[in-house]
Design goal:
By secondary structure, the chain is α/β, with parallel strands linked by helices. It has eight helices and seven strands, in the order H-E-H-E-H-E-H-E-H-E-H-H-E-E-H. It has a five-stranded mixed sheet with strand order 1-7-6-5-4. Strands 2-3 form a two-stranded parallel ribbon. Helix 2 runs parallel beside helix 3, helix 4 packs parallel to helix 5 and helix 6 crosses helix 7.
Length: 200
């Protein structure tokens, strides 16, 4: 618990049996029937939990994410114009949360840039909706940022991981990937009331 708090900086950590348990808790608490979850493509279980809770998944990935021939370095980016349109059209209460996945599975494990994440963060703040990371492969995303995004090559990986985590309201993790354990996961959030509801 202390190591996770030190690395990621979130106030509350709620352990789960694995990553899909974290997705399930988040959907149960935040998704209402008809509410939208804009995301950079989808991970199968993430989308399933939103759908089972009555929500609607909305793809707002950049078009390069679906083009395996594209050399674009950050296929995990969210299309900010598309996201802004979805947020504006949905109106108050229409968005459950915005999800951005690190090292996007459906795009072959491609990362998002910190510049893009900050753009997503700005829009979610303007519209008053939570930004939740699928941070299962956040460490790998940080390596890509260090190698590919200007201005970050001299930053340490722990610094970059914390920088990314600090741009979000919370995150879900499957610990079977970057944390090198055989099973387990967790939800991490800063909001006290949200943490209470997740624990319940």
């Amino acid at each position: 618990d202390a190591a996770m708090r030190e690395l990621y900086g979130f106030r509350h950590l709620i352990p789960t049996h694995q990553g899909r348990g974290a997705e399930h808790l988040l959907a149960r608490v935040l998704v209402k029937p008809g509410s939208l979850v804009p995301s950079n493509l989808y991970f199968t279980t993430s989308r399933a939990h939103v759908t089972l809770a009555g929500g609607v998944w909305v793809d707002v990935a950049v078009h390069e994410a679906s083009d395996p021939e594209s050399p674009f370095p950050f296929k995990g980016n969210i299309d900010l114009v598309a996201l802004e349109r979805v947020l504006a059209d949905a109106g108050p209460g229409g968005i459950a949360f915005v999800r951005q996945e690190a090292c996007l599975n459906m795009a072959g494990g491609q990362p998002f840039s910190i510049e893009n994440l900050r753009g997503v963060r700005r829009l979610t703040r303007e519209h008053g909706v939570p930004l939740i990371l699928d941070a299962t492969r956040l460490s790998e995303n940080a390596v890509f940022v260090k190698d590919r995004e200007g201005g970050y090559s001299d930053r340490s990986l722990p610094e970059l991981i914390r920088l990314i985590a600090d741009e979000s309201d919370g995150a879900i993790f499957s610990s079977k990937k970057d944390h090198f354990v055989p099973i387990g996961g967790f939800v991490a959030v800063n909001d006290d009331d949200l943490a209470r509801r997740l624990r319940e």
